[in-house]
Design a protein that fits this description.
Length: about 425
């Protein structure tokens, strides 16, 4: 089996901070929150009335209106992010290369907005009124399928669903397929548009969400002592992964190189992390082992950092155990402090952040950090962005089900 180097050559994002990667990056560096009162539906009867909406998203600006009506919001957002990533990579699909290009995406929930809407019609108006597009709109593999149809990709194509670790698992699989020589290019990352009445109520009633209705922009506060839950959001983070030799042959710009991937499970609880953080620690160790690098070489970690009391405490413990006496000197930030938690899309958005941090040698802040927590004693890049030499970075995801997944990425060197 061959073992090829794999690089990142394209980025695309639709997030609560804007409809493209420049809006995401500028918003993050300025410390701007994308969290606000909900407008997608009437949340007045909910305990939580805010979230991370993708604001100003009009599908008809990007997708033929007739086609857009046949797509769930998750697929609409995913197609727009994929289009940006493919343009950014300068990718040209031809009959000669299309069999070697594929799409592997992470979705934690899929088309739940369409499912809720059609269930309402079923109950109010009867079975005959249910849309014939229900199944193709709600199925979680719809988004990569539509990306392939739109761009003519005939290589590997599927969805990975592992809750909040979905995108990292999808990207880890894509990395390994490329490294093994089974494709030349894979469009990968994550998508989620599960900011719906039912989902919001479910997460709220299980006690997972912040209830700071009076100050939504301050609700997501990872690693802060006063954190009280995550903020439910929507979005997409799509990247173009490419075999290095293929990227070089076409003169592609390279943001960063993918170096390693590790994945584990806590085998502890369906929603709560292992308080000993052994699974999260092992995922980072495996990613570094795969990269043939050591913890002493890590210069930055993009944390899962959800702003829940248990998650942040466990992840901080895993990071301290990994880095030892260096734990207070390696920056660890949380993108979710500004985007909220986009569930299956989160790791895709966050690997874009890692790639840009490596490319620009800059780190965005973790905002809303006001009260240090002794159990999360890390350099969280509090409230202000900074220049920083990033050579080797880790991007963590921890999902319901006990899933842990870590990607290691670094500066590209010829």
């Amino acid at each position: 089996m061959s073992s090829s180097r794999v690089v990142i050559t394209g980025l695309g994002a639709v997030t609560p901070l804007g409809l493209d990667v420049p809006a995401l990056w500028s918003g993050l560096l300025s410390g701007r929150s994308g969290i606000a009162p909900l407008t997608l539906f009437d949340a007045s009867k909910h305990d939580v009335r805010f979230g991370g909406e993708v604001k100003g998203f009009e599908p008809a600006r990007f997708i033929d209106p007739k086609e857009a009506k046949r797509l769930d919001r998750s697929t609409q957002i995913g197609l727009v992010a994929a289009d940006e990533a493919i343009r950014d990579a300068g990718l040209q699909v031809t009959p000669a290369n299309r069999d070697r290009i594929g799409c592997i995406l992470g979705l934690g929930i899929g088309g739940i907005a369409e499912m809720e809407e059609q269930q309402r019609k079923h109950l109010e108006r009867g079975p005959s009124r249910v849309s014939p597009f229900l199944v193709p709109k709600m199925m979680s593999n719809a988004t990569p399928g539509h990306v392939a149809i739109r761009h003519g990709f005939r290589g590997p194509n599927f969805t990975v669903s592992s809750a909040c670790a979905s995108a990292n698992h999808a990207m880890g699989v894509a990395f390994r397929l490329l490294r093994a020589g089974e494709a030349d290019i894979l469009v990968t990352g994550g998508v989620e548009a599960a900011l719906t009445p039912l989902t919001l109520a479910g997460f709220s009633n299980m006690g997972a969400l912040s209830k700071r209705n009076d100050a939504p922009e301050k609700a997501s506060r990872p690693f802060d002592k006063d954190r009280d839950g995550f903020v439910l959001s929507e979005g997409a983070g799509i990247l173009v992964f490419e075999r290095l030799d293929h990227a070089q042959a076409r003169g592609a710009r390279i943001y960063a190189e993918l170096l390693g991937f590790g994945m584990t499970d806590d085998a502890h609880h369906i929603t709560a992390p292992d308080p000993e953080a052994s699974g999260g620690l092992l995922a980072m160790q495996l990613a570094l082992r795969d990269a043939r690098r050591t913890p002493d070489e890590v210069t930055y970690i993009n944390a899962h950092g959800t702003s829940t009391p248990l998650n942040d405490k466990a992840e901080a413990l895993a990071i301290r155990r990994l880095l030892g006496e260096r734990a207070r000197r390696v920056p660890v930030n949380s993108t979710k402090s500004m985007t909220g938690h986009t569930l299956g899309a989160a790791a895709g958005i966050e690997l874009i952040v890692v790639a840009l941090s490596i490319f620009h040698q800059q780190l965005h802040p973790t905002i809303n950090y006001t009260t240090p927590d002794p159990e999360c004693d890390l350099d969280v890049v509090p409230n202000v962005s900074r220049d920083h030499a990033v050579d080797l970075a880790l991007s963590n995801s921890l999902g319901f089900g006990g899933h842990n997944a870590t990607i290691a990425a670094g500066r590209y060197r010829a």
